[in-house]
Amino acid sequence: MMDIQQLRYFAAISQTLNYTRASERLYVSRQALSKAIHDMEKELGESLFFIDKNKLFPTPFARMLYNNVSPVLAAFGELESALSAWQRRLERERFAVVFGMGALHALSPQALFGRQEETDGVAWSFEERTDAGVREKVASGEALLGVLRTMPDFITDFDALPLWQEGVYLQVSENNPLAAKHCLAVSDLREQPFVTLGADMDLHALLERECTLRGFAPRYLLATLDFHLALGLVARDEAICFGTNPAGAGHTPGVRLKPLKISSTGWGGYAIKNRAAVVSPPMHLFLERCRAVYQESTGGRRKIVNWRAAQP
Question: Which class is domain 4-91?
Fold first, then answer.
């Protein structure tokens, strides 16, 4: 297959009709140009140039090819320029954000990531990790900011910037007797098979703590980050699992979303950063964006926290 370098060689020769001038323009040897054209002719099965009275001329096929190659080279040049500009932005400032799994459920990724061009001179990057993975990334400095669904007790090693407040919800089968209750108590979970997200997630730690306070241990059926697998078990009334509100409400046939009454307070969305890190203008913009997108995604029904007023 022809590559972009061959097409550039071909275009230069078509424009100069002289191998020597083309090689000087491209800073390559005349032999390299001759070989590139020969390889193209062999691959295409057509002659590209011929010599008449010591002058080089394009064949009709070469003229047709050049007319089609020119816009391709122009478009590729624009792509190279865009990539170079992006790399220069990376060299100036790179703003990395890592999300805990489930944190994006409260936000609209398209609304959040689609507004990146509102910032000048900053390259944004995003990834999703377990809650423990978010802490590791922020603690090591690989990410400037982490976004978690958690509570203050679980993020004491960082500056915690509250973004929104919410409750804790469980998903139960409509065939489970718990589905008849408006609100679930932690004691309702005794002996209930439970699908957890695993020990690296703060919801797991919350469940452990709440059950321990009431004198029993959760009965785990499975630990998985596969939400579809978990919902399948819930729909078949084989287990219960955590859910999200409002995004998770009413979207899974046969599954009911129920609020869980807990003794702990402050559950919600938090941004975490290292204590030594200052709230830079890009970080400030991103935090405000998270709050705005959450407000939009919930239709203004959920409580937003003024993170600036809450800073220590």
Answer: mainly alpha
